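Regression test case RT-17, inverse folding.

Input:
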């Protein structure tokens, strides 16, 4: 199998898909949809979210996930980073209000801490750094699977009424839009899995196009509601600084914490990359369900964090790839972990590996 490499200067990119999302935001700012058009766009967005989670369920191999449970200590460590340590740091960000973050930006900052980990970019970075790629595949898949349930529940507990008026009705809506399509995908995987595998590239465009529709609808609603008047350049600078501290803390905790727990270098690499990142592809549709008209402001911290994590992790993975390993040389090259067909770290983590 061809070894995954990063070629300068493309190893520190501005993700093209992030550029597409930014372009969609600009379009929503200049030409927001309203009235009947907003109702049509909202209905299409709801359908797109359901389709996304159906595809997530249909692509996730249940057999591979169960097989990956053999490395349960690593997966529990990644899940603890994603759904325990991250949320605790998100709660601590409440101390930044009102001097650094507005209450609305802090809620978005907390929401990003509740989102599951990435899949494809975690795999790619783990491969580049010569870590445990199979473990990264399973850890990312487990995180995405757990996030379908844990992210809405954590949002209900930690965000409360700020998450668009979270209520029993909202919980039912989440189950219908996220969990039911996912379970339907799992049940139908036997019949549709082969088709999805054969047309993976085309369906990848469906994934990304659906998310762009969700972004356009959310930011259009935000423009019509006038919430963007609450964000100033100074507040954005404060948000970026807070996210830089958050990312640095999680990178350090996942790396050195894994060492204290007795994991070897390949596992520590997988834990660091899977445990320190957040999925834009999973977070955007969830935010559209949780926050409603406030979703545009709520996902801004996640969008900025996503690009920051890609750039920083690209540097770290490149440096880790130069670490001397036992058996390096002609024999060592043959023993390095295979990338498992991972995509380049472009952040396109919308389809589970």
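Golden output:
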């Amino acid at each position: 199998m061809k070894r995954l490499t990063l070629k300068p200067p493309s190893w520190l990119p501005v993700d093209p898909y992030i550029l597409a999302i930014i372009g969609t935001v600009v379009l929503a700012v200049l030409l927001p949809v309203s009235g009947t058009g907003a109702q049509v766009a909202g209905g299409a967005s709801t359908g797109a979210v359901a389709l996304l989670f159906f595809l997530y369920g249909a692509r996730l191999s249940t057999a591979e996930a169960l097989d990956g449970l053999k490395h349960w200590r690593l997966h529990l460590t990644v899940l603890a980073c994603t759904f325990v340590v991250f949320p605790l740091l998100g709660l601590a960000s409440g101390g930044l209000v009102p001097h650094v973050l507005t209450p609305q930006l802090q809620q978005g900052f907390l929401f990003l801490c509740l989102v599951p980990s990435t899949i494809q970019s975690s795999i790619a970075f783990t491969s580049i750094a010569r870590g445990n790629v199979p473990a990264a595949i399973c850890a990312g898949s487990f995180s995405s699977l757990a996030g379908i349930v844990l992210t809405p529940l954590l949002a209900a507990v930690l965000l409360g009424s700020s998450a668009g008026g979270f209520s029993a009705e909202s919980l039912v809506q989440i189950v219908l839009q996220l969990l039911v399509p996912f379970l339907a995908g799992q049940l139908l995987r036997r019949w549709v899995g082969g088709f999805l595998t054969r047309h993976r590239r085309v369906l990848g465009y469906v994934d990304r196009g659906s998310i762009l529709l969700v972004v356009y609808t959310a930011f259009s609603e935000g423009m019509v509601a006038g919430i963007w008047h609450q964000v100033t350049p100074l507040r954005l600078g404060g948000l970026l600084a807070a996210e830089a501290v958050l990312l640095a803390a999680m990178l350090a905790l996942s790396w050195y914490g894994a060492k204290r727990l007795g994991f070897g270098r390949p596992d520590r690499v997988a834990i660091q990359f899977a445990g320190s990142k957040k999925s834009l592809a999973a977070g955007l549709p969830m935010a559209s369900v949780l926050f409603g008209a406030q979703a545009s402001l709520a996902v801004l911290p996640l969008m900025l964090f996503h690009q920051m994590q890609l750039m920083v992790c690209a540097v770290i993975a490149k440096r880790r790839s130069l670490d001397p390993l036992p058996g390096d040389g002609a024999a060592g090259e043959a023993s390095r972990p295979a990338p498992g067909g991972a995509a380049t770290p472009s952040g396109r983590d919308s389809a589970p590996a």
